[in-house]
Amino acid sequence: MKLTEKNFVFTTKIDIDEDCYIIAREPTMIEFKKFDSEAKSAEQLDAARKIFPSCIIDTNLENDSGEKASGTEVWKAIEPSASLATRILTDWLNSIPFRTDKGATASD
Q1: Fewer beta carbons within 10 Å, N or C terminal of the chain?
Q2: pLDDT digits (tens, 9 = 90+) for 58-72
């Protein structure tokens, strides 16, 4: 298999509700450096909140124009709900393979 044919980036599908989902990729090494392993949970969530919109790579949500919503548009709709935003960020962080052994799959 050629290296260019393999994608080593892990992605995670996160269900927002029964009808809506997003697919998020793992952070890059540069993005990951923003996380401090010694930081408190709230600080970790804040770091995740800042990079999460750029990590959203797919969704079935549409913007008001009927086009696929961007990561930024999706996050702007989710973030006002603290409970939903926290659940999504927590699910995403817990799915990343180097943080835990469950959830993520490699994209081919």
Answers
A1: N
A2: 999 999 999 999 999
Q: Which two tokens stand for residue 20?
A: 């809506």
What pLDDT shows up at residue 4?
A: 66
SS (H, E, C) 8-54: CCEEEEEECCCCCEEEEECCCHHHHCCCCCCCCHHHHHHHHHHHHHH
> Any bridge partners for residue 62, and if so which?
68
pTM: 0.80
Among 8, 18, 26, 20, which residue's Cα sits nearest to residue 103?
Answer: 26
Q: How far apart are CA 22 and CA 11, in angstroms?
A: 10
Q: Is 104's pLDDT higher than 60?
A: no
* Encoded tokens for 84: 């939903």
Q: How far is CA 27 from the centre of its chain?
A: 8
Higher pLDDT, 1 or 48: 48
